Amino acid sequence: MSQFFPTPAECGRHVVFGTVPIRTYAGDGLQLSLVDIPAGGVVDWHSHPQEQMGMMVSGRALFEVGDEVQELGPGDFYRIPGGVRHRVTAPAGAAQALDVFHPVRDEYR
After folding, report:
1. Pfam families under this entry (predicted)?
2. Domain ranges of the chain
3. Most buried by CB count within 10 Å: which residue of 61, 66, 70, 101?
4. Contact by Cβ (8 Å): 37, 94
């Protein structure tokens, strides 16, 4: 077991919003979450106290953050301040995003 290179077995695995698998890894103050949104998948309206930033890895997704709506694709960044309602959908095909949370979301360790 390495303190610098986690194995897949050391990562958290969860399913959020019924159909969206995520793989997570947390350090002392921040957390990564690799999100695989299936075609037609929805990460429905929610908010959390943690700040969230990320980047689209593949596919396209529609982000609704506060009162703004933006379709993002590979390489596009996003920022969601803590406490702001948001929703993400992948209406045209599967999409993958890498989220970063600060502080750590303990429920997704």
Report:
1. Cupin_2
2. 8-108
3. 61
4. yes
- Is the model's pLDDT at 1 over the cut of 80? no
Residue with tokens 């399913």: 15
Tokens at 35, concatenated: 């999100």
In CATH, what is the architecture of 8-108? Sandwich (2.60)
| 3-class state of residue 39 by DSSP | coil
The reported pLDDT for the residue numbered 3 is: 86
Which structure tokens are listed for 45?
């309206």
DSSP label at residue 17? T
Longest dimension (CA), the chain: 44
Using the structure block, give the residue that is written with the tokens 């077991």. 1
Do residues 38 and 54 lie in contact, with contact meaning Cβ atoms separated by under 8 Å? no
Please give the Cα distance from 19 to 30 (Å, whole number): 25
On the CB side of 91, CA atoms within 13 Å amount to 5
